[in-house]
Amino acid sequence: MKTTKHLFYAGLMALLLGLMTLGAAPIEAQTGKHDLTRRTWSDGFTAYTVRRGTGGLLLFEGGSLYEGGYAFALKPEGGDFYRLQPAPGRSDIPILGEPGNIVRLRPYGPEMYLVVYDEKNLPFSVLAPIRDLRQRIEDDLSNYYLAGEYRTANGRTITFYPASVTSKRRVQGLTDEGDEAVPYTFGEEYNTPTNVVILPDGSAYRVEKTDLGLTIHRVTQDEEGLWTGDGEEIIRNARRTRFLSELDDLPGDFPCTAMRALTIGQLSRLADVDLRIMRNEIYARRGLRFAGGGEMQRHFESKDWYHPEADDVSDRLTELDALNISMIRRVEEMMTNETCRH
Fold first, then answer.
1. Are both 191 and 256 inside the same structural domain?
2. Is 124 in contact with 264 (CB distance < 8 Å)?
3. Which of 10, 91, 305, 317 has the fewest C-beta atoms lying within 10 Å of its C-beta?
4. Domain contains 185
């Protein structure tokens, strides 16, 4: 029998699906409201402003927080279609994609995204509209990489609270000075926020996540601006016991996948275990029944919103679902290849 809590989550899921349907309104009804030159676009690593060139060509110019001078172009092909090509006078393309790839302007949730497709017409990369690249990277680190409650084998608990419209990012339990959550900022390397947490007293900690859990060391900044040192180990292999999200009114550990198209840069900042949960949560949200006794079955059966209904939900996936699954798999493959090289 369904409890009131189950009925609440069922209603919330229905509302979420309704919002997603509205977000997928016909492109013809939305394209006219969105001028690419009025936004800044990012693949999660770099950011680009857009200006119009000769012959209607759209010139994307920008770079990372460390260096600029990057550029590429989109040639309008009619409707929401564009063709990816090098900027005039250049031979390279600084984003994931090849000359001639189709790029489409697609609506997901309240935003429009540029999606690059490969020669097999499969999603290859995503450019998302942003306001500030540094802020976006910091939000990705605090809301996706860190956010959650973690517990060590000896019972110590540390909690990273996500940033939201109404609250700043905070951490609780990192030091022994009381139980109050304190704000933190991120250290930077090569002018780019990295996984180093700096507390108001100036102490700095490198936070690393693996399948074994969360490990935190004290670090200091050297003369070259890098965070180094064999500092004191504060936390070792703390397991996440609770997920926290800035979208806490929506069900799921990673509800962002139901509302936004995620970029390669955003996903690359997650640990392997988080990518695995994020990818499978998309299927779980559509009612996939996972293999009995497996890690994913145990994980999702603990969730009030999860209702397994089918062994194959491929026909239930939305365009946004399929896109985010493709992007997550691409990052997982990139991480696997990087590990093999080392």
1. no
2. no
3. 91
4. yes
CA distance 151 to 146: 13
Q: Residue 79's CB: how many other CB atoms inside 10 A?
A: 11
DSSP 257: G
Both tokens of 151, joined, read: 């517990």
Assess if residue 141 is contained within a domain: no
Q: Report residue 264 CA to chain centroid gap.
A: 8
67-75 LR contacts (CB < 8 Å, sep 24+): 70/46, 70/94, 72/48, 74/36, 74/103, 74/114
- Token pair, residue 289, equals 């029944």
The pLDDT tens digits for 142-177 are 999 999 999 999 999 999 999 876 689 999 999 876
How many domains is the chain partitioned into structurally?
A: 2
Query: 333 and 288 in one domain?
Result: yes
| Contacts of residue 55, Cβ cutoff 8 Å, sequence gap at least 6 | none
Look up residue 57 and give its DSSP letter: P
- Burial of residue 29, with CB atoms counted within 10 A of its CB: 0-12 exposed, 13-18 middle, 19 or more buried: exposed
Residue 140 covered by a domain? no
Same domain, yes or no: 225 and 266: no
Chain-centroid distance of CA 269 in Å reads: 7
Q: CA geometry: angle at 193 spanning 192 and 194, to 5°?
A: 110
d(CA 269, CA 161): 17
- Give the three-class secondary structure for 237: strand
User: Rounded to whole angstroms, how far apart are CA atoms 72 and 58?
Assistant: 9
pLDDT tens by residue, 257-303? 999 999 999 999 999 999 999 999 999 999 999 988 789 999 999 99
Burial (CB < 10 A; 0-12, 13-18, 19+), residue 322, is middle
What would the DSSP string read from start to end of 106-170? Answer: EEETTEEEEEEE-TTS-EEEEEEEES-HHHHHHHHIIIIII-EEEE-TTS-EEEEEPP-SS---E
Q: Are 252 and 258 in contact (CB under 8 A)?
A: yes
